[in-house]
Every structure is written in structure tokens, then in C-alpha cells.
Amino acid sequence: MPILKDIARACNVSTSTVSRILNYDLTLKVQESTRQAVFEKAKALGYVKKKRKSSILNNNFKVGIIQWYSMEKELIDPFYLSIRIGAEHYLASKGTEVHRFFKGEENFNFDQLEGLDAIICIGKFSKSEIVKFRKIQDRLVFVDLYTQRINVTSIVLDFETAVYDVLTYLQSLGHNKIGYLGGVERLSDDTIYPSKRRKSFEEYCKQNNIQYEKYIYEDGFSISSGYRMCKTMIQSKTLPDAIFCGNDQIAFGALNALHEAGISVPKDISIVGFNDDQNSLFTTPSLTTVHAPTNFMGELAAKKIYDFLKSKKFHPTRTVLPCELVIRKSCGSKLKI
Known about the structure:
The protein is α/β, with parallel strands linked by helices. The chain is built from eleven helices and twelve strands.
């Protein structure tokens, strides 16, 4: 029977670190790759954590958490990883049996979900996939998926207000030429998930006479995509006053491209990210961004599921969570004093 020391030795971390990771201690500051490595090694060694009795009730509920990404892609996207950890932390605290699935893996199929008491779906899913989930289980919560009709329970972010706050702030600094670097998310049926970030960005710019049409680029939500898009923008020799990035990963890549080109941030151009990744504090300069409550999104999804399981009653709802602009040092004023 493997013990914590075996996992700690294999992952080159302390036994206490392994224990805190396996108990979903989100106050522990470790790299997400280390956290994931511990979970993977525990699974590979067949480690079974002793179950604690729930302080509320003793149950045998089995809840599935479906990540729309592959495990490999999740490792480089802290947004969705944080949501999953938040959900797992809450369910573990209630003594609920959690089954984790990655839809992006080749071996995933919907038959694996049979027998679950409830399902949390994280990420973007096509209409046909939503139908499949609903056939398997009515107790469903979708996280970060906006549906036109409220026919499933979902938790989403208030992108409209978040984008309004970003652009109002940039305008207050005298920026009237603002670019957008975003990502394209394709669903399993090859359709493109509509971006509320871009839609809100364009609507605000049109209503407030901001020049933006020449400065819109879309690729992926990754550092390499941000680097490529910003490099293309630089090579066009048509730069805006400021750039709003669809997530912090894109902003990290853009900062690198601007630095390589000798373009100073924020002296020559301002840049804003989205998500408030923990690394945004340590860029040069520190990144102004929008805090998205990803961990709470996961916790809230799990709480809704737990309430469904306890009460046996559930009705579709949509919960919209607020975001908060976090001002750091990557934005400068163009106003003459």
C-alpha cells in the first residue's frame, strides 16, 4: 500500500506538501505543474486517501467533473484548472466521491458518465454535447458556458461590465486607439463559440468613438499566441495606444514581443490582461488585469450540485458573477499635465 512518503519521494517534494495537495489546500503556494504531478503520481501508485466522515451527513454520492480540455492543455491554462480545483475542494470537504474526466482526451466517451449522481461540466460544449449530458443526468451545472436559453444551470462571468471597466479606465488615461488580442474557441462540432469579450469590446468602442478596427487580432488563448499576434501588430507598423488582451496568457506573450521590439510598456503603449493569473504580479511591469473569481466559480458549482443532491429538487438557473479591475503598472497616461 503506497503512502504519502512514496509520492513525496517520486515528486521531489515534502510529505506535508503532498498531504496538503491531496486535501485540496488552496492556500498552498506551489506551481500548478507540481500540484498536477502529485495527483498523477498518487493515481499511478494506487494511493487511496482515507475518507473523512462528512460533518453534515454520510453519503455515497458520486459526482463527475468534466473538463473540456485535455489534461495536458489544462496544465498551461490556470483559468480552467482553478475552477476544477475549487469544485473538487468543496466536494471533498463533504465526503463526496469525485470522478474526474477530460473530454479532450482520446479515451473519453459519454458511456463513462453512466451511474453518476450529478455532473459538473467545465468549459465550452456544443449543443449536441449538452443534449447528451442531459440524457445521462438532469443534475448538471455548466461553468463558463453561456446558453441562449436558460435550460441548464450555468455559472458565467459578467464580461460586459468587466470590459466596460477596462475601456473606461483606458479612456480616462487618454487612450482612444485601443487594440484587442483575443482567442478563438472551437467546439467539438467545429463551430466557433461566440466571444462575449470581443462583442462587448466592439460595442463599447463604437459607442465611445474609439478607433479599434485596425487593431483586432484573434488566435488562441496562450502565451505563444499572444506573442505571435503582437509581433504581427508591431510588423504592421500600426500600433494603438493600448491593448486589451482576452486573458493574461496572451498579455504575457504580448509583453515579450513588445520588449523584444524595444517598445516600452507603459511609456509607449499600455496593456491590460484578463483573469488575474498569479504570475501577473511578477511581469515587468506588473500587469493591470481583471480578476475573475475562478476558484469561487468551481466552489459555487459544487455547492449547487450538493444542494441538488440533498434536496432532490433542481431548476435551471444562470448565475452571473462580477469581475474586478486590478490596476497595476502596465498602463500609463497620455494626458498632458
